[in-house]
Amino acid sequence: MVASGVQTPLANSLDWRNMAERYHPAHRPAAGHELRDLSPGNIALFGAALAAIIGVALLATYALFHFYLVGVTRSQPSPSPLSYGRGPTPEPRLGVKAGDELAAMRKQESEILNTYGWVDRDRGVVRIPIERAIEMIARRGLPARTDRNGGAAAEQEPGRRMEAKKR
Question: Are 142 and 158 in contact (CB under 8 A)?
């Protein structure tokens, strides 16, 4: 504002109050897309160049692998004809059906632990079920050791031997 009360265009543009009070619509470009930045021809040219670079890189890689393979095979002696046959697989071999093999092993162990059978028939050695063996040991006790002089140690009940050792 000027002191005389007359507003000039310069004074009007410098007055911040006029700017805050007036409605100034935003300038919007016309709807559509930008035609100047990307053209389909340039995109196709870039795609073709990229495909050509990838093709050249693949061919160069194949040529290098072939070159080094020929060089390595020439420098190494030929393998023995005996190496062509398949030998036995070294231990430990992997189980094909591990679950079935485990079940069979547990069945065999259960049979050994829970049934009567011969261990050595010529010497008269037998096996008894583990539950029966536990009952027999609980009833009879473990056999006494002999002392260093060759005589048998004093016969005591198993529980009393443990009490004597604790004292």
Answer: yes
Peptide bond into 92 cis (omega under 30): yes
> Confidence class of residue 96 from pLDDT cuts 50, 70 and 90?
confident
Q: Which one, of 161, 156, 114, lies nearest residue 134 by Cα?
A: 114
Count of CA atoms in the C-beta half-sphere (13 A) of 71: 6
Sign of CA dihedral 74, 80, 81, 83: negative
Q: Residue 111: phi, psi to the nearest 5?
A: -65, -40
- Tell whether the model's pLDDT for residue 155 goes beyond 70: no
Taking a C-beta distance cutoff of 8 angstroms, is the pair 116, 128 a contact?
yes
Q: What is the pTM of this model?
A: 0.32
Q: Rounded to whole angstroms, what are the CA distances from 81 to 85, 89, 90?
A: 8, 19, 20
CA dihedral over 36, 41, 45, 48, signed as positive or negative = positive
Q: What is the pLDDT of residue 163?
A: 47
CB under 8 Å to 130, separation ≥6 — which residues? Answer: 113, 114
DSSP state of 117: E
